[in-house]
Amino acid sequence: MIRLAVLAAALALIAGGAEAAPHLERVVVVMRHGVRPPTQSNADLAKYAAEPWPAWPVAPGELTPHGGETVKLMGDTLRAAYVAKGLVPATRCAGAGQVTVWADGTDQRTRRTGEILAEALQPGCGVKTAWAAPQPRDPIFGGSTSDGCKVDAAHGYAPPTLSPEDLGRLNAATARLQAIFAPTACQGGPGMCFASAPADKGFFPQTAGLAEDLLLEYADGKPMGEVGWGRATAADIAATLPLHEAAFGRIHDNVYASSRRGAPMTRAILAALAGEPAAGGPQSGPELKILGLAGHDTNLVFMASTFGLTWTLPGEPDGTAPSTALVFELWTDAGHRYVRPVIYYETLEQLRTLSPARAEALPLRFAGCADGPMASCAYETVKQRVEALIPSDCV
Predict the structure, then answer these.
(1) Are 121 and 79 in contact (CB under 8 A)?
(2) pLDDT digits 0-9 by tens, 76-97
(3) What whole-number distance in Å separates Cα of residue 55 and Cα of residue 367?
(4) 252-299 pLDDT, tens digit each
(5) pLDDT tens for residues 160-214?
(6) DSSP label of 388
(7) Percent of the chain residues topping a pLDDT of 90
(8) Could you tell me whether strands 99-103 and 325-333 are parallel, antiparallel, or unpaired per DSSP bridges?
(9) CA triplet 385, 300, 260: central angle to 5 degrees?
(10) What is the value of pTM for the model shown?
C-alpha cells in the first residue's frame, strides 16, 4: 500500500509538471515586405550614378516575383515553427479567426506580401489579407497624426553624434559606395560626388538608401554584372551597409520619437497578444493564434525601439533586410502570461538563392526584463513599460 501511495504521488508530480510547462497561446508577426526595386524611378536616381541603372521587372517600389519567393520562404518558416510548437494544426486549416493578416494598404509591396504570407501560413485555407484604404495612411504603419502623438522638433531625429571610430568607419563605407556608383565623380567625372562630405553631414540619408539599393539588386538575384554596375560583390555590399544601419540606429535610439510614431502598432500588438480586439482594422480576439502585420523596415525599428529590443544578426550586414520578421510570442505558465521576442531572418545569400528553404531564428530579450520562461518578460511588465512611453492622448 505504501508503494502504491508513493507511485501515485510520483505520477501526480509528473502530471503537475506537465500542466505547469509553458504553453504558447498566440503570436504577432511584424514583417517587412519582400525584395523590391528602389522606390524612386531610374530617371530620378540617375544623378547619383555614372551609368544607367539596371532594369527591374516591376514598377519602382513594387514587390518583385523573386521578392515574393522570399516572403513565401519566411511564411513557410513561420508555419513550420508554430506547427512544431502546437499553435496551429499541421494537416488541416486553423479555425475561423485564428490566423489573420493585416497589411499596409498604401503600397503594392506590403499588400502582396500580406497575401503571400497568409497563404504560406495556411496553405489552401483561403485566409484573406485585409488592409485599409491607401489614403489617408493607415496609422498602424504610418503613425498617428493626432496632436498627442506629435514629435516635438526639439526631440526629433537630430543629426548623429559620431565617435571618431564610427565616423572613420562610415567615411570608409561612403568611399566604397563612391567607387561603385561614380568612381570619377569627385574628379569631375559623371555622377555625384558624395565621398567628400563626412558621413555625419549632408549626404548621410542618401548614402544610406543607396547602400540598400545595392543589397536589393543582389538579393533579387540579378546577374553580378548588374549588381552595382559589375563593381559590387557581396563583400562590397556588406562594406557599405554600415551607412544604412547607422541611419536606422538613429531612429532606434530616439525612443521618444519612435514610441510616438509606432504607438498605433504597439497598441495593436498588445491587444492581439492579450486576445482582445485591436483598434484600427486587424482582426484579433480570444480565438486568435497568429496575427501577421505586413509592413516596412521602419515598423521593425519603431517596435524594437519602443519595446526595448536590439539585435545583431550573425554574419549579416542588414538587421532589417527584406522579409525579416519580428515575432512576439505570448506564453502562459502557471496562470501567468509572458512575452518572448524572436527575430526571424534570411541571410543575404538566402535572399538571393532561396536556399536553404527555412529562415534563421534568433531569440531576443527585452532590455532589463528576461526573468520569465525562456528569458521572456511578464506581459503586464511589457505593457506597463511601453505604455509609459506613449502619451495617453496619442491615439
Answers:
(1) yes
(2) 999 999 999 999 999 999 999 9
(3) 43
(4) 999 999 999 999 999 999 999 999 999 899 999 999 999 999 999 999
(5) 677 888 888 888 999 999 999 999 999 999 999 987 766 555 456 689 999 999 9
(6) T
(7) 83
(8) unpaired
(9) 50
(10) 0.93
Q: Residue with C-alpha cell 502530471? A: 15
Q: Which residue has the cell 549632408?
A: 202
Distance of CA 383 to CAs 14, 103, 212, 390, Å? 33, 23, 33, 11
Q: Which of 280, 285, 275, 295 has its CA nearest to residue 113?
A: 295
Q: Do residues 313 and 236 lie in contact, with contact meaning Cβ atoms separated by under 8 Å? A: no
Q: Cell triple for residue 259?
A: 514610441
In the numeric block, the cell 569631375 is attached to 188
Q: Which pLDDT belongs to residue 156?
A: 74
> If DSSP codes are grouped into helix, strand and coil, which group holds residue 377?
strand
Angstrom distance (rounded) from CA 138 to CA 280: 8
Amino acid at site 218 = Y
Strand stretches in 243-352, DSSP E: 290-295, 325-333, 336-345
For 69, the grid coordinates are: 519567393
Q: Give helix 242-253 / helix 204-219 axis angle, nearest 10°.
A: 120
Grid cell 514583417 — which residue?
31
Q: What is the pLDDT of residue 276?
A: 97
Give the separation between CA 350 and CA 68, rounded to whole angstroms.
Answer: 13
How open is the CA angle 382-385-390, to the nearest 5 degrees? 120
Position 73, amino acid: L
